Amino acid sequence: MRLITLDDIIESYTKARQRGPGFLVSKLKLDALARTKSAFDPSAKQHSDWWLIPLIRERWNYLISGDPQINYKQFLVNDLLEDAKGLRLLSLGSGSGGHEMELAAHPGFHKITCIDIAQNRVDEAQREAEKRGLNNISFTCVDFNQYEFPKESFDLVLFNSSLHHFNRVEELLSGPVKKTLKPGGLLIINEYVGPTRLQFPREQRLAINQALKLVPDKYKTRFKATLVKKRFYGSGLLRMILADPSECIDSASILPALHAHYNIRIEKPYGGNILMSVLKDISHHFTSSDSGSKKVLKDLIQFEDMYLEKHPSDFLFGLYEKPEST
Questions:
Q1: Hey, which residues does 157 pair with through a beta bridge?
Q2: Residue 58, class by beta-carbon neighbours within 10 Å (0-12 exposed, 13-18 middle, 19+ buried)?
Q3: What is the rounded CA–CA span in Å between residue 154 and residue 161?
Q4: Distance CA 276, CA 200 (A)
């Protein structure tokens, strides 16, 4: 793993422009949990990441459900849980709860329990659920290490972009999560499952820079900054730990742990190996219907598809069943 890179300096400056100098100051706290929580403060809404781009979300939908207009939640309830009733779901790291509320609106769910460590996001989710009149969903702010996982209480456990924030993944999935699922219960992930701490191999970094050359300079200005994104260097270990000690802390262990302790029901890879890093901080250039930016984006997607022919995906939607005998 590399301790520090040029991107650490560039992105620290960019983050100060995007989220304010106070955000950088928060990273000097000695308390690792406090640094993690600060990553999800209200300023987090000011960003330019790849998931903002409609065409990217349609790509994910297509690779998961086969239809650009059907997301993974719709695919889950319409195709995989079509006749299920009275479902109880636990969401670990629910954030502002948008995905969970989408599921709560489906009649098959009796109760959805959401927990997260960020109080501001829990409060936001609770207000939105009340506004929508959803009575079958609850939100609790709690440190996951303090949560009492009730035995065989849930039909489903969901990790939506949260499992990669957990340390000792195998211990979590084979212990508390497996314990709280009913026999035959399902574990759902929509996750980054790539290299730990975003320490991409040299081959991947070279490919990312090749793809970045496909982007004209007019689409490379970083969000809320004047810097032009000319090259990708990757993240250094020191900044990863300072910025958010939980970020991708044990992500490389996710798939091996799932395959060791659960039965695979479905796995749908949807890339991200190239697009996430190329589009970081410049995604705002690709959210409009501008024909030029759409052409560039399609070229980038084609580049990633070629890369994925020989490399495992960094992102995955998966459904895993707890064995009946455990």
A1: 90, 187
A2: middle
A3: 20
A4: 12
Rounded to whole angstroms, what are the CA distances from 95 to 44, 110, 119, 123, 166? 12, 20, 9, 10, 14
Residue 224 region by backbone torsions, left for phi larger than 0, else alpha for psi between -120 and 50, else beta:
left
First-residue to last-residue Cα distance in the chain: 37
Instruction: Beginning with the edge strand found earlier in the chain, give each strand of the sheet holding 87-92 in spatial order.
Output: 137-141, 109-116, 87-92, 154-160, 181-192, 315-321, 263-271
- Measured from the Cβ of residue 75, the count of other Cβ atoms closer than 10 Å reads 20
226-273: pLDDT as tens digits: 899 999 999 999 888 888 889 999 999 999 999 999 999 999 999 999
Contact 209, 179 (CB under 8 A): no
Distance separating alpha carbons of residues 12 and 15, to the nearest angstrom:
5
